[in-house]
Design goal:
Helix 9 (281-304) packs across helix 12 (381-393). Helices cover 47% and strands 10% of the residues. The chain is globular and about 60 Å long. It starts with a strand and ends in an 8-residue tail after the last helix. Strands 1-2-9-6-5-3-4 form a seven-stranded mixed β-sheet, sandwiched between helices. With 401 residues, it is α/β, with parallel strands linked by helices. The protein has two domains: 5-185, 3-Layer(aba) Sandwich (Rossmann fold); 190-393, Dehydroquinate synthase-like - alpha domain (Dehydroquinate synthase-like, alpha domain, Up-down Bundle), CATH 1.20.1090.10. Strand 1 and strand 2 (12-15) form a beta hairpin.
């Protein structure tokens, strides 16, 4: 009996150790005969990439590879991938890697069928209305457990002209299939396992508290929190624990499904830090999550109070405000156990680097970012600055006013 699981929500998901062996059949089922593999240069040197190549080579599939995706994908990455796609007469797209290759793959699908300047499709300018032609089939194969981009309808892209991140979103950008194979994540270094895992936790917590009525997403977010708390530390400290790795892949996908409600202030500041300072997205989210939770404590109290039991802490008879504070403490402690730096300064983003105009640029870009608009508590630019100050120093959030 196969140890693989098949389910849809709505992307068709194949989950289990060895699931990558299903890729040729998936491509045939989707009518793809010449896929392009979108990945990054670092991944091409890993066992995960070798395994994917073995599967495709063994099936006789004709395919092309684009491996020049940056850690924070650029609009020029998508344009360069489009050239390879067209030159190879490709008819389908496989995103292989973390959120950057997966997002590049989805953005490529938009340009491959609809053309034009990618910025035209910016969600903040209602760019989705320009996606009028069906997209080529997309398969998402994550090698990190963080973004959940393999089941998401958006791509986060950095503009090389404006030096800011923007999102391209459309229901047709949902990959038709996702392959979640824990073996492909085993070679991920502990630091990246930790950062991407905390990205998944941030998705779940921010989506849970977004002030939008969607009880199905809330249930999925809570299950994602449970999986992260139970498995992330194991995945970091015992990289070959395939069960923990697999549960983290599921947590990442669940976080991405849940955040169709949208996200919060941690993501707005993280997007700005990545665009201006090049900070790894998951790492920024991990450091920002505790002060953002503290900023939200009063309004998100009852939802945060649901979290401590996943850490093994009973909340029976405990005041919800105290349970909510315990949730923040436990998230901060989890960061410490898995090696996340306690502050942005410790992660290499010193106050000196963010003095003056650059600090103002981060705050301006964070406020322009749409994620904070669905933060549990409304944010002003001054609020975002106070949260960033707390994250820079690794201290609890407190307003300066």
């Amino acid at each position: 009996m196969s140890n693989l699981s098949y389910f849809s929500f709505p992307t068709g998901i194949i989950y289990g150790v060895g699931a990558i062996g299903e890729l040729p059949g998936v491509l045939r089922e989707m009518g793809v005969s010449r896929p392009i593999i979108i990945t990054d240069a670092a991944l091409t040197k890993t066992a995960a990439f070798t395994r994917v190549k073995e599967v495709l080579d063994g099936s006789g599939e004709e395919y092309h590879v684009f491996s020049d995706v940056h850690p924070n994908p650029l609009d020029t990455d998508v344009e360069a991938a489009l050239e390879v796609y067209r030159h190879g007469r490709c008819d389908g797209i496989v995103g292989l890697g973390g959120g950057s290759p997966l997002d590049t793959a989805k953005a490529l699908a938009v340009l491959a069928s609809n053309g034009g300047d990618l910025a035209r499709y910016d969600v903040q300018t209602s760019g989705g209305k320009y996606v009028t032609k069906p997209l080529p089939p997309i398969v998402g194969i994550p090698t990190t457990a963080g973004t959940g981009s393999e089941v998401g309808k958006c791509a986060v892209i950095t503009s090389t002209r404006d030096h800011r991140k923007y999102m391209v979103c459309h229901p047709w950008m949902l990959p038709g299939r996702a392959i979640l194979d824990a073996e492909l994540t085993v070679s991920l270094p502990p630091a990246l396992t930790a950062a991407t895992g905390m990205d998944a936790l941030t998705h779940c917590i921010e989506s849970l508290t977004a002030p939008i009525f969607h009880p199905m997403c809330d249930g999925i977010a809570l299950k994602g929190i449970e999986f992260v708390v139970a498995n992330l530390e194991k995945a970091v400290k015992t990289p070959t624990d395939l069960e923990a790795r697999g549960r983290m892949l599921l947590a990442a996908s669940m976080g991405a499904v849940a955040f169709q409600k949208d996200l919060g202030a941690a993501h707005s500041i993280s997007h700005a830090l990545s665009a201006v300072c090049g900070v790894q997205h998951g790492l920024a989210n991990a450091i920002l999550l505790p002060p953002v939770m503290e900023f939200n404590l009063e309004v998100a109290r009852d939802l945060y109070a649901l979290i401590p039991p996943y850490f093994g802490i009973s909340t029976v008879g405990v005041d919800p405000a105290e349970s909510a504070r315990t949730a923040v403490e436990q998230v901060r402690a989890l960061n410490g156990r898995i090696g996340i730096p306690e502050s942005l300064r410790a992660a290499g983003v010193s106050r000196e680097k963010l003095d003056g105009a650059k600090l103002d640029e981060v705050i301006e870009k964070a406020y322009q970012d749409p994620c904070h608009r669905t933060n549990a508590r409304p944010c002003t630019p001054e609020d975002l600055r106070d949260i960033l100050d707390a994250a820079l120093e690794g201290r609890s959030y407190s307003p300066r006013r």
